[in-house]
Amino acid sequence: MQTITVGLASASADRSYPIHIGSGILNQVSLISHHLPRKRVAIVSNTTVAPLYMDNLRSVLESQGITCIPVILPDGEEHKNWQTLNLIYDALLASRCERSTPIIALGGGVVGDLAGFAAATYLRGVPFIQIPTTLLAQVDSSVGGKTGINHPLGKNMIGAFYQPRIVVIDVNTLDTLPERELRAGLAEVIKYGLIRDPDFFIWVEQNISGLLARNIPVMVEAIERSCRNKAQVVEADERESGLRALLNLGHTFGHAIENAMGYGNWLHGEAVAAGTMMAVELSRLLNMISRSDVERIRALYVRTGLPVHAPDLGMEKYLKLMELDKKVEGGRMRFVLLKRIGEAAVHSDIPIEVLAKIFPDRAVNA
Ligand code: NAD
Ligand code: GLY
Questions:
Q1: Regarding the domain with residue range 179-358, which homologous superfamily does it belong to in the CATH classification?
Q2: pTM higher than 0.85 for the full model?
Q3: 54 lines ligand 1 (CB under 6 A)
């Protein structure tokens, strides 16, 4: 087992926490039991993940005398909303959960974001534990404390920063993950290489076959290197006042795609890949990135089986959705662009005539 610490110590409090990564570690109750002082825990999962992993987790915890309160949500991005959040509050209240009763998120990013927001807000905050079961959640969403829900007008528009006490990543859960979800998770792995870790980008290029084949040591290395990158960014800028914005590479475009296509129709990682290609093409039009880097990025997405062409929504619709995105500041849209593979920067004031060239209906060759 490997452990990475997200260091969030300050003069007033130490909110640092460990990320444990390993094969079969869901059975190690000792990892989480000291976070369960009152011997009760709510486990939030969904109708797909609970039948696969809830019984095992419950029996491990209950063998130590810990009572589990299962909360099973409908599955899907289209359920990441107020109605589903309320199902969690209903269950917590019905079971008389107290401020000391932790919530465990057992599932992908949707369950993690919903359960985390419930943990941040129920009784003004209860302890939170992440057990992510998709690659995307293991390399990105379970770490860093962003929680929340979608609004019909915009993705992830309502939420809170709320850090977990511990993240437990059992790579064996990836055995049951559908192929399309695995590929979508790799979009966020590739992101770290693009924005800050060029050696990791090369490593992913060299190991993409092993990743798609779910080779365990290769998978563990990808998760470990991704979590290390994410932890470093979150430690430097927990609340996204600067550096953390780089983690949103491709997301301004991607969130517009997810919303416009109907939540759940394009997977988050797919929208991020197509959105990143738009950001990369914009970077090229601004003479920031070399043509050869653009082609390397496109080639890696293609090998990963991720989309490199965004849907044709028309420029007006893209702009309308992007203006609603959280990356707008002072009315100006901000874009994460690439100078080269491994180096990103935030830019605003992109001339509209340049921006217009990257939308699919007006696409030009980079
Ligand atoms: P998801 O949670 O919808 O999971 C994908 C699918 O896989 C679901 O059907 C789920 O039930 C199923 N699943 C989960 N684990 C499984 C397993 N082990 N075996 C079989 N099936 C399994 O999607 P996701 O890609 O994990 O997460 C996407 C969400 O994460 C988006 O809402 C996105 O906005 C959010 N996100 C949040 C952050 C953050 O920092 N909080 C970062 C990135 C993405
Ligand atoms: N996925 C973006 C972030 O955690 O900041």
A1: Dehydroquinate synthase-like - alpha domain (1.20.1090.10)
A2: yes
A3: no
